Amino acid sequence: MYTKSGMSISVRFFLFIIMLSGCSPQEANNAETASPIDFILPTSYIGRVYIIIVPQEMTLPLVTQYDIPPSGVLIIKRPISEDWISEEDVRFYYRKDGKPTEITGRFARAPKETKESRADTEVKVFGTSVGEYEGIYADCIIPHRTYYVGKNTDVYDDINFFDLTEYSKNNSIDCSGLKPGYLRKEWLEKTIKMKNPN
Description:
This protein is α/β, with parallel strands linked by helices. It has one domain (34-195). It has helices spanning 9-21, 25-33, 115-119, 152-156, 164-170, 183-195, and strands at residues 37-41, 47-56, 65-67, 73-79, 90-96, 99-102, 106-107, 124-133, 142-150. A five-stranded mixed beta sheet has the order 4-2-9-8-7. A four-stranded mixed beta sheet has the order 3-1-5-6, with no helix packed on it. The longest helix has 13 residues, at 9-21. It is globular, with a radius of gyration of 21 Å. Mean pLDDT is 77; it is low at 1-33.
């Protein structure tokens, strides 16, 4: 059956579902064809994990497995057409005895703190949140996904809850392919004026 605009009911329903899910038709198509992405954590790593995806206008080899560095911040480059990754395709692993062991527990957030929840020793992946970071130590706006890996008690006790300000202060970030930021420029200009008021 077709509407007056010539669009079939089934197509309109499909587009409506896409709108509800918050992704574009291109993203939906990517989600259907995407390969699972495996992130391998350092042994016993606990804390926040930042995945920074930098879109590139070039052809790159398909990579489906990445090692998270000890810092907990991973910067990966993907073609613009493939920079969207469905959460259903994201998996986390610990490397145990030389082999990846999947962390199967995935939750939006830690449960309300109780005696029982503190007694739960299972390591889980919490999140994800999606955002952009701009700070005084980076020359660009950094898009990222944030996760937390640990036990309930690690979340309650704020173990290794760091932000990208701390990371960018101690590590240079390649900003090629990212939108320029202005906070660092403004901060440097103010710093220079304070040191040289005349």
